[in-house]
Amino acid sequence: MQKTTVKQTDRSQASWFVVDASQEVLGRMATEVARRLMGKHKPEYTPHADVGDFIVVINASKVQLTGAKKEKKVYRWHTHHPGGLREVPFARMNERHPEDIIRLAVRRMMPKTNLGRQMMKKLKIYAGDRHEHHAQKPTPISFGSGANRKKD
Fold first, then answer.
1. CB atoms within 10 A of CB 56
2. pLDDT digits 0-9 by tens, 100-140
3. Which strands, in side-by-side order, build the sheet including 123-125?
């Protein structure tokens, strides 16, 4: 019988990364951020343990979208009251809460469990280019989705 070794959760192994959202396309960046928050990029990935890294996203208000999504994308939710469907277009969401655009995109790719909510706490998002995590010495990473793309 073959045995599988399971890595214990160790927060000291978690690395810090910083992503500049102004150089990235929203969906492509969100998938990679979610992957790193879960720890799927590590060989010791375990589905029931939090082995992911911390991610700091800066310039959230400058995130890029492809095609006509800037005009057509709408965020919808329901208040659970009669007639309570709410809609906010991307432009207004980007003006008022640019951090929520990235947070929603990443959250919807994470596990819908207590562990997924715990992993989301390791995501730090800032609308501008300043962040409070210089002491952790985050490593800058780029996914190459926006900077090298041709413009439509």
1. 21
2. 999 999 999 999 999 999 999 999 999 999 999 999 999 99
3. 123-125, 54-58, 16-20, 139-141
CA distances from 152 to 60, 66, 70, 114 (A): 21, 8, 12, 40
Which position has the token pair 């978690």? 14
Give the tokens for residue 70. 């800037």
User: In the block, which residue shows the tokens 């095609």?
Assistant: 67
SS percent in the chain: helix, strand, coil, step 5: 35, 20, 45
Per CATH, domain 14-141 is 3.30.750.24: no
Nearest to 70 by CA among 26, 4, 125: 26
Every domain of the chain and the residues it spans:
14-141
**pTM of the model as a whole:** 0.87
